[in-house]
Fold:
Amino acid sequence: MTGSENPGEEQISLTVEAECGGWRLDVYLAHKLPQQSRAFWQKLIDDGRVLAGGRSQRPAYRIKAGEQLMLSIPPPRPAEPRPQALELSVIFEDRDLLVLDKPAGLVVHPAPGNPDGTLVNALLHHCRDLSGIGGVLRPGIVHRLDRETSGVMLVTKNDEAHRRLAEAFSRRQVRKTYLAFAVRRQDARPLGDRGCFDTRFGRHPVHRKRFSSLVENGRQAVTEWEIEKRFMLQGWEIIKARIQPRTGRTHQIRVHFADHGHPLLGDKLYGGRTVRSLPRELVPSRQALHAWEIAFAHPISGKQMCFRAPLAGDLLDLEKRLEQLCKDTAR
Structure:
């Protein structure tokens, strides 16, 4: 099937780079065009909308260096989730995008188990002109935060802004800064004042709902960090870190810190026995991770922009509690 049969389709031509020869077709497309999920590309391939060497292939087809790929992408379908009058904390808004302060506990888009009450439902009520390129269930969503992660988040309001901002994300031209609280395992070495985790990253070989930076094969993941504060309490070292992920892998910050002996406070998935063994007053009800700042070029005007979301109330209370406990211990 080609886009010439349907005028609304977008035609994309790609040439496979030498270093990507031998990759699966669906993996390559998800790597090359990360604004869409691997599942999206698998369906597009199965629908015959991706040609490799002039022929339809299967998602598992191994591409060859220098091979020509032709993609026919159908126009975005209108968003189907229903609008809901949910409270939104808007930091900035213009005709092209929204900058929001997402609270912890809010799911970004509808999914099994969360059909409504999501950020997407709230956005559809707030503005009716959201970009549809993110898919039926994810209009305007160009990046995401985990359900229990709070903080600043971008949403696009039209397809052109979405395409340009997605490209900026893929080129690592969007700078994101997080704040996190983590605890050092008893058997782990202390972290220096600043550093960088640069590892391979992929699915955990045993626990399929988890990711790991200790895999032999996987995509590169880079996380830079700087320690802002250290709290020494009851034999535990707890740190507050300012973090800049240079890549955008799923759970990247949580995985990198846990795999290097410093799981985030409250992280039930990656914290393990360390987090469970802490005194209750030191453990928040969710992972202690907050998207604090985002800096980028406006997708239409090109103007440099930077927005911050103040540290969420529960994490601010946690920091004050840690400071007070340190003072009480020092007396």
Q: What stands out?
A: The helical segments are 25-32, 38-46, 119-126, 159-170, 252-259, 272-276, 313-330. The chain has seven helices and 14 strands.
